[in-house]
Design goal:
Length: 292
């Protein structure tokens, strides 16, 4: 029965099902401002309404504000999934779990999802189980420490700021340990890998192979958006991306219809409305709670 229940959730999940992505919508709530890793391809700008990329949000919401917007969205559109994807690292913010707690007090039916860099996964799987989070997406960009050193500037873990090889080791070790725990606990797990020309092109196929061996469910290879410290780098071509996906398909199902979403994304993937939920909410004259 549990397997069928999970399969039904996948069918209704617009990020995992090509059939669902034009029918059902998702809502990302930007309740997690702090981040514990500095990725060299990340540029976290706020109030940039014309950009649809990870790490961007028109504002940061308190858990109560986010919950009120969930109620509005569920009333206005066919939303099947509510998730937290930033704009920082969800697992490094207590506000993520305060928000999930509010939702679970209201409903047990809403599909909850979370995206993470994986650094805190080994410490947080139990609380994700507690709130019945269905799926977790983990961004995995490297297997080798030498590669990770080129991608990440620093990591903050166990109250310690780490750089260089120390940071790279902590990131890789915690990511893969976390993935193993997630699968043992029967989460639906997807990995995202950012294709960075000249840095990890050959490594992503190895990531797919290792992920298959621990039972990861799907993979999404994302082309680099040149920005941040990587702003002068070349963006992968469509041919490079497709060839890599074909090679990795030998190991894991490849999600190709996925969009690179803002931290406040709203709507279905064919009709992305991003900031519209904020305008709807304002029009209904709700009382605001104190912002983060």
């Amino acid at each position: 029965m549990k397997e069928q229940f999970d399969r039904d959730k996948i069918i209704r999940h617009p990020c995992f099902s090509e059939e669902a992505h034009g029918v059902y919508g998702r809502l990302h709530l930007p309740v997690a401002p702090k981040c514990n890793i500095s990725c060299n391809y990340c540029d976290r700008k706020f109030d940039c309404v014309n950009e649809a990329r990870p790490g961007v949000s028109s504002r940061v919401l308190s858990p109560n504000e986010a919950f009120e917007r969930v109620l509005v969205a569920l009333d206005r559109q066919k939303i099947s999934v509510v998730g937290v994807a930033g704009p920082g690292e969800p697992l490094a913010n207590s506000s993520t779990f305060e928000f999930f707690n509010l939702i679970r007090k209201e409903t047990s039916d809403t599909i909850l999802c979370l995206s993470t860099n994986g650094l805190e996964l080994t410490n947080k799987v139990e609380i994700l189980k507690e709130f019945q989070v269905f799926s977790v997406t983990v961004t995995i960009n490297a297997l080798r420490v030498s590669t990770a050193e080129k991608i990440y500037s620093w990591a903050f873990y166990n109250d310690k700021l780490m750089k260089g090889e120390e940071a790279a080791k902590a990131i890789i070790e915690n990511q893969w340990k976390g993935l193993e725990i997630l699968k043992k606990e029967n989460f639906y797990v997807k990995i995202n890998s950012v294709l960075i020309p000249g840095i990890n092109c050959e490594e992503i196929e190895l990531i797919a192979k290792k992920a298959k061996n621990i039972g990861i469910d799907a993979m999404n290879i994302i082309p680099l958006i040149p920005q941040g410290r990587f702003r002068d780098m070349k963006r992968p071509t469509c041919e490079e991306l497709e060839n890599l996906r074909l090679r990795c398909m030998e190991y894991l199902p490849q999600i190709k219809h996925y969009r690179q979403c803002r931290a406040d994304a709203f709507g279905n993937l064919d009709d992305d409305r991003d900031m519209e939920i904020e305008m709807i909410y304002n029009a209904l004259s709700y009382d605001y709670c104190e912002t983060v």
